[in-house]
From TrEMBL:
Residues 255-271 have a biased composition (Pro residues). It comes from the Bacteria. InterPro entries: GvpL/GvpF. Belongs to the gas vesicle GvpF/GvpL family. This is GvpL/GvpF family gas vesicle protein. Its main location: other. It is found in: Gas vesicle. Keywords: Gas vesicle. The keyword Ligase does not apply. Residues 244-296 are annotated as: Disordered. The keyword Cytoplasm does not apply.
Length: 296
């Protein structure tokens, strides 16, 4: 007896233009198809249960080469849809046991999905990260009697620690001001958890991991504001990424599905979609809590 496939969810859109999905494949190399409800289209694919059930997916999420490829494939579908119009990305590894469950989600969440699509119309997401600048100022030399070199060493170390602490506090305050300034220029804004050096690929401490929903015709103005803030605030470096589909602003939080599959807890994913944000939002079904990355 053939084991039925699982249904993998990619995104919700208003409509899919003819030819958009032609030749486009999903995380398992599967062709894509659509499920519909009034005014809504859900783009999905069928993935083999044997490779994507709880245990299999748990193993795969620890396989970084596979994970990188799969996250990129998921983002590639969303990015292609976003080129054609307003798009609500669904979180990587959002799965239903079958199309019936996915269709029930689409119908039940219809009013919220339509409202969210209206909010992101003619907008794109931009990410701004702020890092502490690696070039630390040298603290002033602290004098000590020549016959007490140990005391001089301890005083220098204390001065270095105090200078670094002051520098970090000033930079953190600057990052908060930067976020407030950019949020005022955006339709919506979000702060995501700061990334470790391993996740960000940078040794400098991250002070801000912000996401901003910006009108498309104001993108140049927003970019200029980021450049200006980078000049104004010393001791920090700003990094602008985008435009991305609105991963941080999908605002889809369905009620829990009956008898959901347990969600595995994977290792952090490599970069393949905006890395300032978890890939979409946790949906009904059993999404794995996998962060996305830019590349997406």
């Amino acid at each position: 007896m053939t084991t039925p496939d699982l249904t993998w969810l990619y995104a919700v859109v208003r409509e899919v233009e003819d030819g958009t999905l032609a030749g486009l494949t999903g995380v398992a190399g599967e062709p894509l198809r659509v499920l519909t409800a009034p005014g809504l289209v859900l783009v999905v694919g069928s993935v083999p249960r044997g490779g994507f059930d709880e245990l299999a997916l748990q193993r795969r999420l620890g396989d970084l080469p596979w994970l990188e490829s799969a996250v990129r494939a998921h983002h590639r579908v969303i990015a292609e849809l976003a080129r054609s119009g307003r798009t609500l990305p669904l979180r990587f590894a959002t799965l239903y046991r079958d199309d019936r469950g996915a269709a029930a989600f689409l119908r039940g969440a219809g009013p919220r999905l339509r409202a969210a699509l209206d909010r992101v119309a003619d907008h794109a997401e931009w990410g701004v990260k702020v890092y502490l600048d690696a070039a630390a100022p040298d603290p002033a030399e602290v004098g000590a009697p020549a016959d007490r070199p140990g005391t001089a060493y301890l005083l220098r170390r204390r001065a270095q620690r105090d200078a670094l602490a002051r520098r970090f506090e000033e930079a953190a305050a600057g990052a908060r001001e930067i976020h407030a300034t950019l949020a005022a220029r955006a339709g919506r804004a979000a702060e995501h958890p700061l990334q470790s050096a391993e996740a960000s690929g940078r040794s400098d401490p991250m002070l801000l991991n912000g996401a901003y929903l910006v009108e498309q015709d104001r993108a140049a103005e927003f970019g200029a504001a980021v450049t200006d803030l980078g000049r104004r605030f010393t001791g920090v470096r700003l990094e602008l990424t985008g435009p991305w589909p609105p991963y941080s602003f999908a605002d889809i939080q369905p009620e829990p599905a009956p008898e959901p599959e347990p969600a595995p807890e994977p290792e952090p994913a490599p970069e393949a979609a905006p890395d300032h944000v978890p890939a979409g939002r946790a949906e009904q079904g059993w999404p794995a809590k996998t962060p996305s990355a830019e590349g997406g």
